[in-house]
Amino acid sequence: MNPTYSVPQTGIDERSERRLNAQHYGIKDFFGVNNCGAPWPTHPKPILEIGSGNGVWAREVCEQLPEAEVVGVDIVDGLRSKPPNFTFRLLNLVKDPWPFSPGSFDIVHCRYVTMHIPNCKQLLDNAIEATAPGGILMFEDQDQQLRAEGKPVSYPAVLAFTIFRGYCESCGVNPRPGALLAPMIIASGQFSETHETIVPAPMGPWTEDKKLHVIGEGMRTGIIEAARAFSPKVYEFGMTKSIVEGMVRELENPENKIYANEYLVWARKKPDHL
Ligand SMILES: C[S@@+](CC[C@H](N)C(=O)[O-])C[C@H]1O[C@@H](n2cnc3c(N)ncnc32)[C@H](O)[C@@H]1O
């Protein structure tokens, strides 16, 4: 099991469902679609979702593109029901050999996984290799850094994040991969275009830009639910229930004007002849 991602023994529970759905519909609401602005091929070859979770993205894509085969990989088989064009494959991204041949997928999607994986560069390299020439690679993640408009972040919100990031680093996980995604993809030299959207997701609907409200609510729900489900190991690192609940109160107070950046990246792989 990955040390920085807590999944109940029984699989994905109601709390995780709520968190994953809120995050998914927040991002979908921002773009209006599931592609983060990427122009998808009309008739794609197989699609890969790395870290498919409860399958909220994959299920919708299966419905949207019924002729496409969608493959989801994860350490947990989290889909309660599977569409006919969806295949789940158990894969531990940290321990198992990468099972896919180069260029097998026209679309590769990976959301909120790099922040839980030691050596997320290896994961990115595998995803890049699996993307077909001319295909689309999509990576989405956060930088787990709270910010506040025009002032310092309130205490203990900043404390909870500092302890959690310290814990992640002790496990060899970079807890702030968001800003690295586009640069790593560009540095591979294998893409003809790379697009990065950085969304300052507000904790609560305090900003005047209404377009940010749903994505902000998704991220706030994600942070609160994940923090309330921290594993006992995070507590050994100095976290307490009172720090978690203190952070929740700060995130729920619109006067704090807290936000966190969401990094949404897509890139098109060069065709074979380039
Ligand atoms: C925050 S969830 C995101 C789920 C999904 N991508 C989404 O956005 O709704 C992170 C996912 O990464 C998976 N994960 C964590 N560590 C993993 C590992 N070592 N190998 C495979 N999957 C892993 C978890 O099981 C979980 O489903």
TrEMBL record:
Keywords: Methyltransferase, Transferase. The keyword Kinase does not apply. GO terms for biological process: methylation. InterPro entries: SAM-dependent_MTases_sf. GO terms for molecular function: methyltransferase activity. Pfam families: Methyltransf_23. This is S-adenosyl-L-methionine-dependent methyltransferase. It comes from Dacryopinax primogenitus (strain DJM 731) (Brown rot fungus). The lineage of its organism: Eukaryota, Fungi, Dikarya, Basidiomycota, Agaricomycotina.
